[in-house]
Request: fold
Amino acid sequence: MDKKIICIACPIGCEINVHIEKDGKMKIQGNRCKRGESYAKDEILNPKRVLTMSIRVENGEMDLVSVKTDGSIPKKLIPKAIEYLKGVKIRAPIKVGDVIVENLLDTGVKVVATRTVLEDAILQLSNK
Amino acid sequence: MRREKIDVLVIGGGAAGMAAAVQAANEGVKTVLLEREKKTGGVLNQCIHNGFGLHVFRKELTGPEFMEELWKELSETNVVVKNNETVLNILPETKEVIAQSPEGMKIYKVGSLVLASGARERPFNSLLIPGTRISGIFTAGVAQKMVNIYNRMPGKRVLIVGSGDIGLIMARRLKIEGMDVVGVVEIRAEPGGLMRNVVQCLEDFSIPLLLSHTVIEIHGRERLEGVTIAQVDENFKPIGGTEKFIPIDTLVTSVGLIPQNELIEDFVDMDPINKGPVVDNLMRTSVDWIFSAGNNVAIHDLVDFVYEEGKIAGKYAAKVAKGERLPKAKYHFKRGRNVGVMLPQRFTATEPFKIYIRPKRTLESADLKIGGKTYRRYAWKLRPSQMIDFIFRDFESLTSKDFEVEIEVVENG
Ligand code: SF4
Reply:
């Protein structure tokens, strides 16, 4: 069986052909680098994605902080992960790289902040 | 009016401008960076998806992370960053720049200048938009800013017109935020954005992509109530009988970017295809103290390339401000077969440099030829949505007497 896959590991987007033998062995062609090979294998056996979105922030200079999963998570968990992260709310200040969720849905993958959100200056004053 | 004398003035605090300012300051000259918004970062600020930084930082970053890397670089220099300051005019005869700041008008007397004013979004066919101000129509960038920065949803049910990268990314983003994304329509027969975005933004989320389709009518009085879409022929003319009404309250448009060059287009040489200034490999325009980098020179796909250009522009702008003489850009490229957007257009032939080319059309496999000689074989599909980049250093082989070098991308199938 042959499967065509577009590699999304980098912007080039190689068109990879995966030939799957009866015994499950895969022959992979069309990738221009090694990353394409592991991407194609994963795509057949267990497709994974990095999820980026934003999470609500309390008393921040912005109402949202952008976040990402620190590694890829199984694609089929994405809808669940979105639902879960929509329910998360954190307090400013937040620094880029701060861990927001230690272990997302037991995947072992962290969710980290991808930007700095300082405390709202006005709120900060009234708290003093 | 306040006057200030500086060495290098950088206009625009996006990726190109920040990189240019960092590099200029590292050359030891007094550098000022002007940003019209209240913070630097440009469009990176709202591009919360990943895919940035692979070339420059060797890791995959989101837009805000890439921006914070640049903030870190800036903080290690003595660049003076001035936010909320808008440049009104550049006076080429006196090397003066007039800016509007919160403290009033200012005049900068500069040694050299880097213009990194970026691009703006092309508005969707305004002929279609009914006379009354109908709400519910947004460009993808505006929708992105609403959702990612201001935490506001543009509506409930959305169609995206145009399949540029921002449009594809917004389709996914709005879906994640819970909007009903009915699909993406693209007037051309192939997607405008990168294939990876078609896969990870549309296919992953089961969002349909309708190629060779466009919006031909907009319905609604105050709020958008729907659009009529139709299939188009090769000449982009709607085909009768294919019209279909789509009920939506939101239309997001992603039909391309336009370089912003109002400040210089009257007095520097402009490239009609790039819609940006003609530049050499030092990112110098036809005016020898004005440099330029990033999306106002030509629309790029990758912020990494914009960053690299910014660094080059900053470096040579600093040298000019110090009074160094730069080599002349004696050679120029002539666009040959299939060459669309291309930069630089001139070069000094003194040091290796990167050439960027967007093929005019999709090519199955092709050779990059410079001055008739093949330098690179591409054994894969080249698309207009993806710039190719190539480092050119083989100056010995340049034999042309008139310093004109043809560059072409030829199908070898
Ligand atoms: S195979 Fe390598 S070069 Fe091709 S798209 Fe994947 S990561 Fe990029």
Q: What stands out?
A: Chain B has three domains: 2-120+258-326, 124-255, 334-409. Residues A 7, 9-10, 12-14, 31-33, 35-36, 39 surround iron/sulfur cluster (CB under 6 Å). The first helix of chain B runs from residue 15 to 26.
